[in-house]
Amino acid sequence: MAIEIRPAASFDDVRTLVGPKRPDANVCWCLSYRIPSKENLALVGPERGERVAELVRQDQAPGVLAYDGGNVVGWAAVHPRADTSFARNRRIPHVDEVDVWSVWCIRVRPGHRGRGISHDLLRGAMEFARSHGAPAIEGYPVDNDGKKVDLTMAYVGTRALFERAGFVKAADTTSVLNGFPRVLMRLDLR
């Protein structure tokens, strides 16, 4: 069955992909880059999920979801960089003044990995950004040169994933994740 990518308009489906098993747990919820650091650190337990529910209710979804039939199987966070912590991140440079969008988290549910869903999610994030008028989109994956990336750190994607989607390296960064340097990959959407 073909994978369908849709805007993340269902809180229950977003929770399935990025929420904790226990509602009181302090997991990421994919908020670390989406909201200001001070707010992110202040939110604990159920407050984190409540904040994500607010984002899902906004006119512009906080990302895209992948569906295999009726089952949600993947998530990609995508939003205008200006409204994320990447707007002020000292380790991830700005290459110009274009109002780019950022894609910073790509996650596929266990049991569905190895089927190319991360590629579908990245393409879906690109189309979502384009449909909202984004002139370009950036990602900040690891440059792992084909070496294995720990699954807990693989959420940023790999340089090869972004290259297969047509992105090109626009800059080096000073950010390192799982021992690998991160690079700034960019795709013009015009």
As residue ranges, the low-confidence spans are none
Main sheet: strand order: 1-2-3-4-5-7-6
Averaging pLDDT over every residue, what do you get?
95
Shape: globular
Number of helical regions: 5
Tell how many strands the DSSP assignment holds.
7
The topology string of helices and strands comes to EHHHEEEHEHEE
Distance between the termini: 31 Å
Largest sheet: 7 strands, mixed
**Class by SSE composition:** alpha+beta
Radius of gyration: 16 Å
Strand content: 25-35%
- Considering DSSP H and I runs of 4 or more, what fraction of the residues is helical? 10-25%
Can you tell me about this structure?
By secondary structure, the protein is an alpha+beta fold. Helix content is 25%, strand content 27%. It contains 5 helices and 7 strands; from the N terminus they run βαααβββαβαββ. The chain has helices at residues 11-18, 37-42, 46-57, 117-131, 159-164, and strands at residues 3-7, 63-68, 71-80, 101-108, 136-139, 168-177, 180-188. The protein has a 7-stranded mixed β-sheet, sandwiched between helices. The two termini are 31 Å apart. The mean pLDDT is 95.
In a few lines, what is going on in this structure?
This protein has 190 residues and is of the alpha+beta class. The protein is 25% helix and 27% strand. It has helices at 11-18, 37-42, 46-57, 117-131, 159-164; strands at residues 3-7, 63-68, 71-80, 101-108, 136-139, 168-177, 180-188.
